[in-house]
Amino acid sequence: MTSVAYALKEAFNNLGRNALIVLGAILAVFISLTLTFGTLVFGEVVRVNTLQWAQDVRVIAFLQDDMTAAGTDDLQQEVSSWPQVQDVFYVSKPDAHEEALVLFSNDDAMLRVLGENPDLLPASLRVQPVDPEDYDLIVTRLESTPGVLQVESADDAIDAMIALRDGLQIMFWLLAVALGVAAVALIANTIHMAIYARREEIEIMRLVGASNWFVRTPFLIEGAMEGLIGGALAVTFIVVAQRLAVGQLEQLPAWINLEIQGDFLLKQGALVLLFGVLAGLIGSSLSLAVHRTLRS
Fold first, then answer.
1. What crossing angle do the helices spanning 155-197 and 212-248 adopt, rounded to 10°?
2. Are the CB atoms for 124 and 60 separated by under 8 Å?
């Protein structure tokens, strides 16, 4: 118990004794973890918006004209039961005609054709996948389904959206890892400077028989505290900034959503705090391992 009290006392003393150096380390951790947590939050915003945009991506199954109402209902129920399908709705010939009039409102030639042939467009089922990656399988199954005349999907747009989502996720994680390594290096450098400033005191403690762990523990606690404080500041800054952005940017288009679930912020914020502590411990351990004054 005495050793624990001594380690905590020395850790706090070190923080106060090297205030400027410690402040620099905390700020460095704060910047690194702010960028890391900000990257995770931005990645979540991209993911949420990608899913939102994906809701507008539908596979269109045009139905044969001889399909009866009962046959259409059965087909709709069958398609909706597929595990890859999230939603299916029916568009009748009149509804398709009205939709086309809106879509081609600036095309006089097409409007004339639609006016002369109000039954030109077939009825259809609009199918929304659970995941954009499922659209290819849905198209294949629909093409082999009786009663389906033709299947259309925005293949290139869907592939581009999936590639954008996956590419951004990889970039976000690589950046987060790089920034995390930078935070560890900065804490290690700070602890190294603290050890160097107290090298004579440490030599005296070693001469009177102090064990390595007795000497090292305060530095480990100091590193963990620097990481914790820096992480707490980073989480607070990003959460406040995200809330302010949501409140101040209400004029953004409806298809851009900056809202994030509180559970995500809570869980990821806790992980950032934990990483801050681990970064402090790892950085301190690295510095202690290479410093000749504390070698076994």
1. 140
2. yes
Q: Is the pTM of this model over 0.85?
A: no
Neighbours of 249 (CB within 10 A): 10
CB-side neighbour CA atoms (13 Å) of 46:
18
Q: How far apart are CA 26 and CA 181, in angstroms?
A: 15
Residue 142 near residue 148 (C-beta atoms within 8 A): yes
Question: Are residues 209 and 249 located together in one domain of the fold?
Answer: yes
Tell me, yes or no, whether 165 and 257 share the same domain: yes
For 148-158, the pLDDT digits (tens) are: 888 887 666 66
Of 153, 169, 192, the domain-final residue: 153
CA pair distance 245, 268, nearest whole angstrom: 19
Asked which of 132, 153, 174 is the last residue of a domain, the reply is 153
Neighbours of 50 (CB within 10 A): 17
Q: Strand, coil or helix: what is 249?
A: coil
Backbone angles phi, psi at 88, to 5 degrees: -140, 135
Question: 203 lies in which domain range?
Answer: 2-52+160-294
